[in-house]
Structures are given as structure tokens and as C-alpha cells.
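Recall that a protein's primary structure is simply its ordered list of amino acids. Everything else, from secondary elements to tertiary packing, is in principle encoded there. The following example makes that idea concrete.
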Amino acid sequence: MHHFTSDGVDIAYLDEGVGDPILLIHGFASTAVVNWVTTNWVATLRHAGRRVVALDNRGHGASTKFYDPAQYRLPFMADDARRLLDHLGIERADVLGYSMGARIGTFLALDYPERVSRLVLGGIAMGLVNGPHLAEEIASALEAPDQDSIPPGIPRNFRVFADQTRSDRRALAACMLGTRETVPPERLAMLKPPVLVAVGENDTIAGPGGPLARLIPGAEFVPIPRRDHMRATGDPVFKAAVLAFLAKPQ
């Protein structure tokens, strides 16, 4: 991983391959490596002739950790992504975000439309409009003394995932509470780049993706068969849909 400074925040990133650039923004409690390398996204996109850039969002991986939710506002995290493009001299890129990364990518495309060629929103649905589901409960689970004290369900699943990725759970709890900004439908209608929404058919965290796609003029929607939130990330159907979307002329 390489590093650069985004307005005083140390951000780790990878930059591999040659060709038209695509920026990958990972989901909550994940990292660039977990979300994009181990799922073969980086290899797939490089094989397709793309330059692949992926960052560890603040609070995650090898990037700076904060313990104040105010440091995790989605526009701040979108600015980290935009400054990474500046740092690398990339004027315009396709953007693929998953879950929280899709939320960040949406703010990037809304705040800096000239920087985003195409936008893929994976693992996100009406939570983008209504706010993340169970944010307080997930933050509490992350700060619980042990997994056994957490009842089964989505908050416990996030705690297990955070432990698997050896994350700073206190930083993640702050991030969960700080990334609750929503995007009203009228602002979604202002998105300029072509948009693809892709959500697992069994994703109980995101929910159905069709209603979100219908709020975005011209957006495409692809359901990922038989996949839940975690297992959809590296699914071949998801990859094929993204490659086909990226290959379309603008």
C-alpha cells in the first residue's frame, strides 16, 4: 500500500495496472485488500485493461483512525477520494463503491460530477435515502466486551466481521455513527454520470435495490442471485454486470 495525506489525514491506497482508471471504495469494516483484492476485483479489472485505484477509508485498514463521529461525515470521506485522484493526477475516473463505499461514491459524484465518469453502487438500496439500518445497535455491538454478549443478528455479524478483519472497533463505532447522512430523492435525480445499482437478492442489510435505481434517471439495476450482503461482493454475476456497464459507450 502507498500513502498520501488528505487534508492532514493519512490515507493508504493501492494503484495497479494501466488503462482507463477506476476508483474502488470499500464498505464498512472492510479494507481495500479485503473488499477488492481477496475477491479478485483488482485482478479482474486489471485483466480488462483498467488502472485500478483503491483506498482504505479513514478509520479503516492502514489509514488514520478517529474516535469522533464528526470526523466521518460522508462529504469528508468523499473528499479523501477526490484528493486521492488529485494526488495521482487523475482528472476523471469510473467509481465502484460497495455498501458504505457506494454512499461515499454518491457524494463524490454529487459534489464533484466532473470527476466521475460512471458510478457503480453495489450493496446499497433505500438506506441511501432513509439512512443506515441499525446504526446505534451496530455501534454498540462493536464496543461490546465480547461477541458472546451480543444476540444473533446484523449487529453481531458486523462485530464478527470487524474482528475477522482485525479492525479498530472503537474507530468503526464512531464511523458507523458519523456516516448517517442521507441523499433525498430530488438530489439523487441530479446525478450526472451513468449509474448501475447491484444488490444481492438475499441482502437483508441493503434491502431491494430496484426502488433506489428507479429514483436515479437512466440507472440500471442488476440483482445478484442468491447472494446476501457479504457474499455478493465478489460474485461473478456482479463482476460481469460491472464489466458490461463499463464497456458501454457514453
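The chain has a mean pLDDT of 96. DSSP finds eleven helices and eight strands in the chain.
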